[in-house]
Amino acid sequence: QIQQPFNTSNGTSFDPKDEIKNSTSINHSVKDDVEAEEIDETFILSPGPTDFPKRSIPTYFPTTTSNSPTPIQSYFPTIFDFPTDMPTGTEDDVRSENFIQTRSQESAGFRLKMYWEEGYFWQERTEERWWCMQCVDKMGNSTCEKNSRMQLRNCRTKSDLDAIFTYTSFGDGGYQFRIANTNNMCLQKMGDRRAIRVRPCKDDQMLQRFMGFHPDLDRFDLRPIIYSDRCLTNHHHPKPNETVYAETCKKAHQYDTGYWVRY
Which pTM was predicted? Predict the structure, then answer.
């Protein structure tokens, strides 16, 4: 039974019907808030970006009013009529130097000269010797072409007969040595043979990769990356026109002919 309105002790009028209405209104408002929080917590996504966020909880997509990239990098690319090539971000975020490079080239040419130091006793001589790689074809002509071999020549005086190299770094994948002024020719170990030949450069040819080299080293050995127990050298003590091939590193260093320098 619903009571009739009456006056309270302070003289104000109290109607129980109004109290029921207020209670119902308050309960309805709380219910709306809870349901709204439950909807927000499910992260229901609209088919496109919203013009304004409805609540303080962040959305998966950046809020925007245009198709322009967002001012800071987002987890998802800006929604557009076609996919973007790179994530949206500031200009500094996408500069090429910020990405890891796995392949780099050195354009300055150099000779590969056999390393010498005080105390070496090549051919019973104690003075410094200058032996560089030179290309020769099967007829013995100084030509860097397909299947040419490398031999030693006296390069105390630099000459056009010396092979000039540039390198390509593949990071932990070794270095490739390209011969300048040729039709894209590189050094290559010939399979399980000891021979070193001039062959067309191929980035995916692992027989053209060498380890041991580094441009900042004073001396280095040149080890085929697949046959890392072998080093580029000559037979015994160096002398003119000796062929460069892949000997065991133990024997090459035993005769002090396992190291090279850029020259």
Answer: 0.60
**Residue 173 to residue 181: CA distance in whole angstroms:** 25
CA–CA distance, 27 with 33 (Å, rounded to integer): 10
Tokens encoding 8: 């309270």
Which value, to the nearest 10 degrees, does the dihedral of the CA atoms of residues 159, 160, 161, 162 take?
A: 70
Closest CA to 134 of 247, 262, 232, 241: 241
Q: List, for residues 23-68, the tens digit of each pLDDT value.
A: 444 444 443 443 443 334 333 334 444 444 444 445 444 544 445 4
Structure-token pair, residue 144: 């860097």
Contacts of residue 138, defined as CB under 8 A and 6 or more positions apart, other chains included, come to 147, 148
Distance from C-alpha of 213 to C-alpha of 259, rounded to nearest angstrom: 10
3 state DSSP class of 24:
helix
3-state secondary structure 108-171: EEECEEECCCCCCCECCECCCCCEEEEEECCCCCCCCCCCCEEEEEECCCCCCCCCCEEEEECH
Phi/psi region, residue 16 (left: phi>0; alpha: psi -120 to 50; beta: rest), is alpha
